Amino acid sequence: MSITINTWNDIDWGETRSNVRKIQYRIYKSRLQGDLKKVHWLQNYLINHFGAKLLAVRQVTTLNKGKSTAGIDRISTLTPQQKLTLATELQIDGKTVPIRRVWIPKPGKTEKRPLGIPTIKDRAKQALTKLALEPEWEAVFEPNSYGFRPGRSAHDAIEAIYQGLHFDTPKWVYDADIRKCFDMISHDALLEKLETFPLMKTQIAAWLKSGVMEGYANTTKEVLGSTAGTPQGGVISPLLANIAMHGLENHLKDFVAKLPIKPHPGSNRGETAKRKALTVVRYADDFVLIHRNKQILELCIERVKEWLAKMDLSISEEKSRLRDIRGGFLFLGFQIIQVKRLKKQTYKVKIQPSVKSQQKLLTKISDLLRRNKAASAYQVVTMLRPVIIGWANYFKYCECKNVFSKLTNLIFQKLRAWVFRRDTRSGRLKIKQKYFPSGRTYQFAGRTHEDEWVLVGRSKSKGGEVSERYLPHIVWVPSCKHVKVQGTQSPYNLEQGLYWALRSARYSPYPLRVRTLLIRQEQRCPWCDRQFTIFDASNWEVDHILPRSTGGQDMYDNLQLLHKDCHIAKSRVDGSRNS
Fold first, then answer.
1. Phi, psi of 280 (to 5 degrees)
2. pLDDT by residue (tens digit) across 456-514?
3. How many CB atoms within 10 Å of residue 282?
4. How is 447-496 classified by DSSP, letter by letter?
5. Tell me, what's the pLDDT at 154?
6. Helix axis angle, 120-138 relative to 36-47, nearest 10°?
7. What is the Cα–Cα distance from 114 to 105, expressed in whole angstroms?
8. Beta strands at 99-105 and 212-213: parallel, antiparallel or unpaired
9. Which residue spans within 455-528 are E strands per DSSP?
10. By its UniProt entry, which PANTHER family does this protein fall under (predicted)?
11. Whole-number Å distance between alpha carbons of 509 and 518
12. How far apart are CA 110 and CA 427, in angstroms?
């Protein structure tokens, strides 16, 4: 495709996205119809489409969080002209260069895990490849696979587990962890499973077998070979891991359907009943099997081990366990347990934030306060607010009220100690009024709260304007019910556009402010007048119509939701920030 663009800032990203999505929709539809020849033709067309190359370069150089991390070439940032040059020269050619490996600590552990960092050029090539491969595989991925997929989240996985357990009958659960999944996947088995055209296969094989350097190209000459696994840190690695694990759910469902054993006393012997009796929920390399019959579940576990062996994978026995759900288990940070109602003598499923997750939050807050003993209250509120509210927004889709109430008190104790430690000259009442002013009301999540112990910080600009911020209590975040994504619904299916539009506004785990603006704006960006889609969700930004620097208020009447690139373009016009 021939497009004439003078500068990077001249690109109409809305039009570019729209053109690429149209090709992806066709790939998805062709795969649903089983026309692999057309799928491969469209994928080859897409990887040579200039608009797709522009999107790939923009994703890895502008939008991704790790955009400033350098590979072995030490290049971490590009000028607009360099980005345009990279997009022009970008080509899937079956070649690659070694990745830079760094070691990062595992959360809450002393051991570390390797993170592979490709060069910017390789990251752009991987992003381009993902644009072509993802719609094909979204057409065939299993319904209860939730990790690293568009329109799906950890909350969908938790809700799927709830639906498998909420009947008034204790069940058996096998929560499994695959030993070093990303590091051990068989290259040959994965490439065979891809069933893609030669050039794509050659390129992915090159990435899988690319060497590893422990430093930069000009500081070390030792290149370590790679014989298995997908490097953690690559743009395409999560997709490849999902492809490697694809088929497990259907394999187990087919297996139990043929067993001569009834799922439980009173059930029929039909294949449909046997399939429904088994719940399989997978999030990346972690998965859960649920069944009422322990004998059947034990057979499924052996079957899982045989299936994984074909990919050179194995179960981590020390991290996996078969247990009665009444003993509870942990998954994705939640504690899931079935408890007995004493009055009714029936069972209910209880899901709440795990003790470990709570401790991680408190430790993070303590560390932040300890490192910022001399910071102002305004700065501390600015640092703590996204940590606390982000954690609460993740865990609000469960029975969290009592946990949030307990955490509110524990966090307050830490804040109170920080305040009285940093100001020892004033009287305690004066200090209290300075940092925790009395007689104030606060608007949060559409509700008014009155509280005497809310941390408030103030900051004065060079122009003398005073701005104020407060730290909401975590208990102010209300509990919500998450609605699980239906079956095999995919954002790549144009026929399901209405479903995804309604889901984004009503049932998505977006912040309240974003959901409210989506509804007010009828899911359209007022700057480019294009529809918001699930693919853009990570790049939506809330903008102040009249910039706060010129007196604009932080109120809904002065807010709008924009695409990130639209926000940047608007900021160039109103001068609210440099872009």
1. -120, 120
2. 998 887 777 788 899 999 999 999 888 898 888 888 988 777 787 777 767 777 777 88
3. 22
4. EEEE-S---EEEEE-TTS-EEEEE---GGGS---PPPPPPTT--TT-GGG
5. 92
6. 150
7. 9
8. parallel
9. 456-460, 466-470
10. GROUP II INTRON-ASSOCIATED OPEN READING FRAME, NUCLEAR INTRON MATURASE 1, MITOCHONDRIAL-RELATED
11. 13
12. 43
Alpha helices per DSSP H over 246-354: 248-257, 271-277, 294-309
Domains of the chain, by residue range, sit at: 355-476, 494-577
Place of tokens 């009173």: 266
Better-predicted residue by pLDDT, 568 or 86: 86
Q: Tokens at residue 214, please?
A: 């422990």
Question: Are 335 and 196 spatial neighbours (Cβ–Cβ below 8 Å)?
Answer: no
* Token output for 209: 């077998």
H-helix or E-strand spanning residue 198: helix 198-208
pTM: 0.88
Beta-strand runs (E) in 392-482: 441-444, 447-450, 456-460, 466-470
Question: What's the alpha-carbon Rg for the chain, to the nearest Å?
Answer: 26
Topology classification of domain 494-577: His-Me finger endonuclease fold (3.40.1800)
| Model pLDDT for residues 229-250, shown as the tens digit of each residue | 566 668 898 999 999 999 999 9
Using pLDDT thresholds of 50, 70 and 90, give the confidence band for residue 579: very low
Euclidean distance between CA atoms 311 and 229, whole angstroms = 10
CA diameter of the chain: 79
Rounded CA-CA distance 483/507 in Å is: 6
